[in-house]
Amino acid sequence: MVVDTTDATKVIGETDFTSALTTLHPKAIYIVEGKLFQVEKLDFEGRKAYVREVDCNYYTDAITYSRVTVLDCFADAAGVAAHGEVHVVSRTVGFKKIKFYTNENVGSGELDLPEHQMHTTSFWLTIPRELMTALPFDRDDCRDGIVGLAFAMGQVAQLLLMCDRHDIGISIGSAEASGETKSLGRWGPSSEAIDADHPRIFVYDNYPGGIGFSQPLYRMAQELVGKTRDLIVGCPCESGCPSCVGPLGETGPRAKAVALDILSRLPAIESPGAREDSFPGPE
Q1: CB neighbours of 208 closer than 8 A, spacing ≥ 6?
Q2: Residue whose C-alpha is closest to residue 13's, from 22, 27, 35, 78
Q3: Disulfide engineering: 205 pairs with which of 16, 189, 210, 227, CB 3.0-4.6 Å?
Q4: pLDDT in tens, 162-182
C-alpha cells in the first residue's frame, strides 16, 4: 500500500510485493497521475510505503544484485539458447537519480534492504567460450559488449513478448558456475562483475512461479537475436546510447562494436520446441 502523508493520510496506490523493493525503497520517486512523490519510509513488515509529494526534476532507478541458479532445463538448442526453471536471489543495494528528458545521472544513494528470493522461469542465452576467445577485443571491452548486448536484448524481448519492462528481469552470469552479478536495471550492471570468458544472459519472469514468458521467448530465440542485431545496426549513434546498447558512460566506448561482433559470430539457433508438460506454470 502506498500512503500519502503530504496533507492528510490517504492511500493513493498499491504495488505488487515483488517490485516494492525496487519502486518503493526509501528516497525513491513514485509517480502517480503525473505527480511526484518521494518515499520517506518503507515498512517492509507492514507492507506499507509512506510518501510525500515533492517537486523535483529527476526519477529514480534501483540498482540490484542478483544471483540466478538454474534448477531445471526444459529445452536446449545446441547449448546456446535454453529455457527452464531458475532460482533468483536479488538484493536492492542502491539507486540512481536520472534527470527527466536528458537521462543524465544526477546523483545516487545506498540502500540496505532485505534479500528477495523466488523460483521462476527463464530464457537464457549462453555465448560459447570459443566465440568469446576469438573476439579481437581486450577483456574489458568484451565485458562492456556483453553488458550492451544484454541491454539491447532486454529491449527487444519486451517488444516480442508485448510486456512491460518490469515484467522481466535481465541478469548476466557465468555458464560455468552461478555467481553474484549485477542484474540489469535501466542502464545495466558494472562490467567488472561480468564473466567475459563464458557468459550467460538470463531473461527471467519477474514474478514468483513465472507467468509464461520463457517458453515463447525460447521459441523466438533466433528472431530475438536477429532483431537485437537490427536494433543495434539501425541505431545512428556511434558508440552506444539508451536506444541500443545503453549510454556510453555506462557501457564503455566499444560496447556497440563488441555486441555486434558477438551477434555476427553466434551460431544459428534452431529451437526444436519445449516439453509442453515440463512446467505447468502458474494457475
Answers
A1: 18, 118, 119, 120
A2: 35
A3: 210
A4: 998 889 999 998 876 544 444
Secondary structure of residue 115 in the 3-state scheme: coil
Its domain, for residue 9, covers 2-56
Instruction: Answer yes or no: do 85 and 163 share one domain.
Output: yes
Distance CA 209, CA 181 (A): 22
CA distance 1 to 44: 11
Maximum Cα interatomic distance, the chain, rounded to a whole number of Å: 63
Q: How far is CA 179 from CA 80, 172, 175, 193, 205, in A?
A: 19, 9, 10, 9, 19
70 shares a domain with 22:
no
pLDDT digits over 56-115, tens only?
999 999 988 888 999 999 999 988 999 999 999 988 999 999 999 887 889 999 998 888
pTM score, whole prediction: 0.81
Residue 278 falls inside a structural domain:
no
49 CB-near residues (< 8 Å, 6+ apart): 1, 2, 3, 20, 24, 30, 39, 41, 42, 43
Per-residue model confidence (pLDDT) at position 281: 44
Q: Could you give the number of structural domains in the chain?
A: 2
- Give the position of cell 552470469: 173
Is residue 281, in this structure, part of any structural domain at all?
Answer: no
In this predicted structure, what is the pLDDT of residue 79? 86
